[in-house]
């Protein structure tokens, strides 16, 4: 990679990266985290005041432009800094999905009401030094392309915790019109792509790169062909350059193994399919014997974690809602008192009314300020506690990585048992031909059988390599999951707790002032 | 009916012979107890009167009263002191289920206590004989008095008045005078407009206050649930991170309790005073009605008297033998009319005093309510800040160790 000047950086936060770093592998010399605003990359050194001083709007009443405390960045911009440090280890610093457009389907469809689809503008910003000199690349993609990408990744990255793609909802043409649906999908795609970019292996993948960079020359069918072709080419070139480390070798190998296995293969695949259906997350049938105790232990722990995450995620949502409600009601209370104060002032005939009206106004103002603080605090709490939802979502990726593993193991075991039954048949045939003399057809059959056995042995070797590779991926991913989760949770906790402290102090201040102002009323006894 | 002097002699004088200390009359409504069974069950309260006033039977008197006894007192005072804003009573309970809930009983007790003390500190009401009856008579006498009032044994004079009212209404309709006669005093109009508007505004604030109480409870609940979930998550994570989660969960649960407490404080010391304010305004509206009635009577009687006078003059001229009868009737009617006018004027005079008192009292009440609110909220917020702050060092320690580890 050549050293390049930082082109068109509008953020102004990315400091100019020294040339020496540009020449190196991003993994070895991570550039400064672009997403964090004022912070160093280590999660432990967060200064709550530094973060939140950015979101402290002026105290002069009225609606502040900061609204819910959103920074100029998009909602995910306030990612845990450690997460964005990781994401910047890939070449993409930020992927934005925007500008949904309706386009006409070129091939007519049988489904009435369709005939068009939505495309999204995908803008990818590059970390300085990568991207071939460009600061940003834009392509248009439709959801079908996203699905295709996801399918390719799940084939290629077996054993990895591959982030799950957004749901395909079965939609009528009518529903697709709806702004809400399109907006939800846009947001989901954006989150998905950024998660992909943040993954240490997938973020560097060709599949992702092609998706983000290759301009679409023609509508869907040819795009898929083109991408598959380029996949194949790239896979081959990868093999040549030896960059197969960490990837599933089976992909390249499958391309090379003879296609014509015919009926036997089909039968085997059918058997495996029925077998894998009966296996589920918790049930381990005797046929697929996972003997790795350590793995089983980890799996059990993750099950437990998933359960707790589900509950915690749900309660976090409920908590956010309760905070929102109390903030809203405090605001409404303030407003009714404002109206009361106004009413008293307008109708003041007696001495005591004017001070009372003023008192009421002070109270109302305090209530309104408190309401605003609740809202601001909550906007940040949402982002912090989002970590819980993120990791819950990740569990799906873990499921599928583990099922990749059991599928691979199943293949190995099926091939093993196939092999033993084939060999048994061979023995029988040989024995019978020795006894009854060989005739042409029997010899031919034995020859065929021998070939089948050789092929099956080859397949078994591949399958074992496959399985070992997936096991290795699982292991690495598990370590990564534990490590990153530990870090991310700490950041979440720190952010959440600091936020609560800061806003509680602000609110305490507001009411302490009111209490001070009104303390004169305290001395009046009930019989006055 | 001398109550035994159970309490130790007070330094402020008991005996009438000692130099007169500041007169005081202080009453407590305490100690609610459920009596009776089933549908007939009710709550009784202890009413303790402490005073040095000579009109009372002694320095301290304790009686047992129930809600309907307070209602009796309220109604008697309302009848006899038209023009005065009678302190409001808490509502009859609408929902059977909550009639005996601890919260409801406490709110009612507080409101009754305030009711009786306001009467005791009102310059005119405190001298009422009915008040003394209420505070001192034994329970049987009280029961009798109460049932007399609410039963069909109304005083004959009342019945006549009721008939008269009905008559007037009917004749009004017959004569096409359906619109009741009303005052046209602009100041009074302004006051009426103010009071009616005030009721609306206050009702709204009370509604929001109640909602805020609910929100505190809901937040408390969800913090508690969150705390539990986080604790479980911590148990799952284990090691130092797990400990931090546990700590977070524990603090959440603690704060949940504080929130419930603050909800209760808000209910008693903020929402109730607002409700009380609304009731007071409604009591003023009753006085408006009394004043309107008095005005109408005064007008009608004045008119009828005039007609009678004209008639009398006519009879005098004709030297009819009906003159003497007519003269007697005229004189009676004139006396009545003057009485009605006096009643009306008393009401007007009293109302003017009362409204000043009302405004001052309400400024004080609102000020206190705001103070209680602010104090409670400030304390809650400080507790929250302290609780969360105490976890920060643990989080720091955890991240520091994970960096090196």
TrEMBL record, chain A:
Q: Which residues form a coiled coil?
A: 288-322, 412-487
Q: One Pfam family, please name it.
A: PX
Keyword Coiled coil assigned to the entry: answer is yes
Q: Where is this region: Disordered?
A: 21-109
For molecular function, the Gene Ontology terms on record are: phosphatidylinositol binding
- UniProt KW keywords: Coiled coil
Quote the Gene3D superfamilies the UniProt record gives. Answer: Arfaptin homology (AH) domain/BAR domain, Phox-like domain
Where does the PX domain lie?
98-219
GO CC entries: endosome; membrane
Biased-composition ranges for Low complexity? 82-94
What PANTHER family has UniProt attached to this entry? OS05G0346100 PROTEIN, SORTING NEXIN-RELATED
User: What protein is this chain from?
Assistant: PX domain-containing protein
- UniProt organism field: Ensete ventricosum
UniProtKB/TrEMBL annotation, chain B:
Q: Kindly indicate where the leader peptide sits in this chain.
A: none
What the entry lists under CDD domains is as follows: BAR_SNX (cd07596), PX_SNX1_2_like (cd06859)
Show the SMART domains listed in the entry. Answer: PX
- Alphabetized GO MF terms: phosphatidylinositol binding
Q: Which residues form the PX domain?
A: 23-142
Q: Which InterPro entries match?
A: AH/BAR_dom_sf, PX_dom, PX_dom_sf, Vps5_C
Q: Which domain of life is it from?
A: Eukaryota
What residue ranges carry the coiled-coil annotation?
A: none
| Name of one Pfam family that matches | PX
Choose one Gene Ontology CC annotation of this protein and give it: membrane
Specify residue ranges for compositional bias: Low complexity.
1-16
User: Which segments carry the region annotation Disordered?
Assistant: 1-23
Q: Which PANTHER family match?
A: FI18122P1, SORTING NEXIN
Q: Protein name, please?
A: PX domain-containing protein
Identify the species of origin.
Ensete ventricosum (Abyssinian banana)
